[in-house]
Write a structure and sequence with these properties.
The chain is α/β, with parallel strands linked by helices. It contains 8 helices and 18 strands. The chain has a single domain, classed as Purple Acid Phosphatase, chain A, domain 2 (4-Layer Sandwich). Helices cover 23% and strands 29% of the residues. The strands form 4 sheets. Strands 1, 2, 5, 6, 13, 16, 17 and 18 form an 8-stranded mixed sheet that branches. The protein has a 6-stranded mixed sheet with strand order 7-8-9-10-12-11. Helix 2 links the parallel strand 5 and strand 6. The protein is globular and about 55 Å long. It starts with a strand and ends in a 10-residue tail after the last helix. The relative contact order is 0.14.
Length: 361
């Protein structure tokens, strides 16, 4: 059996997305995904009517069997969209013997034994996504050096395991990762991690090998229905990009990992996922085009990132995260505060009718 990582999962009603054509794909694989929103929130109240609230129908749990889904991360910015939603989600997942949840401060990891190999997957969420670490059930947050310390502790606890950081980070629809995220991912590998696998941007980003490990900056979506959610309609202005998605398969080979890239296509008419191709990472032309910076140093990548046109890396009006260690982390904390202030102003603009988010349809 192989371990494969999937992107964001939002399945708002039974039959929302057809997966039947992919059943054969999962026959010899164990999968892990990001549960982007509460399970079965019927009757619950949204926390913020001016934000987009995502959720999943309980029928996803039956569909999870088709995907041989063994782990679901809750470390994302939509887990707590509903008052009481996280507790209900934990209760429902707790009734599933075959699925582990993780990404919480109280349960940060998922541990799987596959063909004699132990995999430890740490779920982490960046504040850049709008998520907060506190609340009803605190999430495991990306905290720069503190998170590196957790990786080192996991390596001591599991000296022979494959350690994977499964992280919700970056800006939505960005083509390239933030410089701080790439720098941090390389530190994870040097600190005992074997792979860093990202999600949240809703588009596929680059993948690269680094010192025997694998870094995938964004898998794109997986089961993410683009349509009606309560009184809002989710749509993206970059359909071609958000409809391409990746499942990343990992294999252990002596002292390093080998990655296989599975590309899928999401279709909105009808809503379904179709397998497109399977290639070794080394020969996948699409991934090569998305990762022109392979082998570059942190400083070289920062120069590359700085040269990008607006929106390719950082959206207009938002700050770029250059390093988590700059000024002892103070620089990043200030930028998180600026993002929070911008979010408050945006909410005010929506209230008075001066702004309507593009993805509300």
């Amino acid at each position: 059996m192989a371990l494969v990582f999937l992107g964001d999962i939002t399945y708002p009603f039974k039959g929302a997305i057809r997966l039947h054509e992919c059943e054969v794909f999962f026959q010899d694989k164990v999968s892990i995904g990001n549960l982007e929103g509460a399970l079965a929130p019927t009757g619950l109240t949204v926390k913020d009517e001016y934000a987009f609230s995502l959720y999943n129908d309980s029928s996803l749990l039956q569909l999870a069997q088709q995907m041989n889904l063994k782990g679901l991360s809750l470390a994302n910015n939509h887990t707590a969209d509903f008052i009481g939603g996280t507790e209900r989600t934990l209760r429902l997942l707790g009734q599933q013997e075959s699925i582990q949840y993780f990404g919480l401060q109280s349960q940060s990891t998922c541990v799987l034994l596959i063909d004699g190999i132990t995999y430890v997957v740490l779920g982490v969420c960046s504040p850049l996504t709008g998520a907060v670490g506190g609340g009803e059930v605190p999430l495991e947050m990306l905290e720069g050096q503190a998170s590196i310390g957790r990786i080192e502790a996991l390596r001591k606890k599991f000296p022979d395991a494959v350690i994977v950081v499964y992280v919700h980070w970056g800006y939505e629809l960005a083509r390239f990762p933030q410089p701080a995220d790439r720098e941090w991912a390389k530190r994870v590998i040097r600190s005992g991690g074997n792979a860093v696998i990202g999600h949240h941007p809703h588009v596929v980003q680059g993948v690269e090998y680094f010192e025997g490990g694998v870094i995938a900056y964004s898998l794109g979506n997986w089961l993410l229905f683009q349509g009606q959610y309560l009184n809002k309609r989710l749509s993206y202005h970059q359909d071609a990009d958000t409809e391409t998605q990746m499942a990343l398969e990992l294999h252990v080979e002596k002292e390093s990992l080998r990655a296989i890239v599975h590309l899928f296509q999401y279709s909105k008419e009808p809503h379904r996922i179709k397998h497109v191709s399977t290639e070794e990472l080394d020969v996948c032309q699409m991934i090569k085009k998305l990762t022109p910076y392979v082998g570059s140093s942190d400083d070289e990548y920062k120069k590359f990132f700085y040269s990008l046109r607006e929106g390719m890396g950082t959206p207009k009006g938002y700050p770029t995260l250059w390093s988590y260690s700059h000024l002892g982390g103070l620089s990043v904390r200030v930028k998180y505060l600026l993002i929070k202030v911008r979010k408050i102003l945006r909410k005010g603009a929506i209230k008075v009718g001066l702004h309507r988010p593009y993805n509300w349809g």
